[in-house]
Amino acid sequence: MKTNLMKTIREQQPIVLNVANHVTPQRVADGINYIGGSPMMMADPLEAADLTKIADAVVLNLGSTNPTAQALMLGAGETANRLHKPVVFDPVAVGATPLRRKRTQQLLERAPVTLIRGNAGEVAALAGVSWDQRGIDAGQGSVDPVTVAQTAAQKCQCIVVLSGPTDIITDGTTVYQVENNAPMLTTNVGMGDVLDGILGVAAGISTDLETITTATGILPVAAELATHQYPDAPFSFLAETYNQLARLDDQTLQQRLKIK
Ligand SMILES: Nc1ncnc2c1ncn2[C@@H]1O[C@H](COP(=O)(O)OP(=O)(O)OP(=O)(O)O)[C@@H](O)[C@H]1O
Ligand SMILES: Cc1ncsc1CCO
Ligand SMILES: [Mg+2]
């Protein structure tokens, strides 16, 4: 694993450019900032290319898809490809509507992404696996999530991080699993979006599978520590999770990470 990830983030302070949804941008910006990255949100497609030039990584979120957001995603994605910068994509509720599927397909064709992070329902939709997705939530399915993640990674030719009680990280061949988790993460809307931001920070440093796997553990490790303090208070848990993100060092992260 990447044993000096937190130190490297705080030294390099990667700039992460986001096409955020309209629900959780503050949570995402805080998540990036608290671990030591530098967040930037954008809203005007006319500056997507110029802002991508100064970014170390780009994070694209389908959550509040609309024509402007799609133009932002395409503009940033295409420039990032040309400049060989990493792109993280979150296909929020992609299986829910034909429009979301069409816009995702257009993005993946015009600007291939480095990493897709979604819950089981979203990754299943990309893999073409039958799944009972529930809006923005994972829903239920009968196929092994590891197979779902590997299929999506092979189809989309990128790294896939399938989040859930166990997070699955794969390039289509090698598979790592992060077993740290905190159920109150699912009570707070947007913690998947925060995970995307953290993965963007890490991708700004390296996109090797070990770095991405270590980065996937940052949020659940912080959330486990917060759960010890606030086992039944989801909003206090949320605040404490951010405190723990700010405090987290490599020693604590490596000690607490449960990877298989
Ligand atoms: N059932 C669960 N128990 C514990 N932790 C979970 C569970 N499901 C997801 N997580 C953790 O919650 C975080 C967010 O992942 P999740 O799968 O909920 O994203 P999401 O569905 O895209 O959320 P959102 O759309 O609200 O941002 C990850 O760190 C993941 O490990
Ligand atoms: C609630 C919600 N609706 C669209 S995006 C979003 C935040 C979770 O991704
Ligand atoms: Mg989500």
TrEMBL record:
Entry coiled-coil feature ranges: none
E.C. code: 2.7.1.50
MF term (GO), any: hydroxyethylthiazole kinase activity
Catalytic activity: 5-(2-hydroxyethyl)-4-methylthiazole + ATP = 4-methyl-5-(2-phosphooxyethyl)-thiazole + ADP + H(+)
EC category: transferase
Binding site for substrate: M41, G190
Annotated positions binding ATP: R117, S163
Listed pathway(s): Cofactor biosynthesis; thiamine diphosphate biosynthesis; 4-methyl-5-(2-phosphoethyl)-thiazole from 5-(2-hydroxyethyl)-4-methylthiazole: step 1/1
Cofactor: Mg(2+)
Presence of keyword Kinase: yes
One Pfam family, short name: HK
Keyword set, alphabetical order: ATP-binding, Kinase, Magnesium, Metal-binding, Nucleotide-binding, Thiamine biosynthesis, Transferase
Family in the record: Belongs to the Thz kinase family.
Function summary: Catalyzes the phosphorylation of the hydroxyl group of 4-methyl-5-beta-hydroxyethylthiazole (THZ).
Cross-referenced NCBIfam families: PRK09355.1
Protein name (database record): Hydroxyethylthiazole kinase
Organism of origin: Fructilactobacillus hinvesii
Lineage: Bacteria, Bacillati, Bacillota, Bacilli, Lactobacillales
Gene that this sequence comes from: thiM
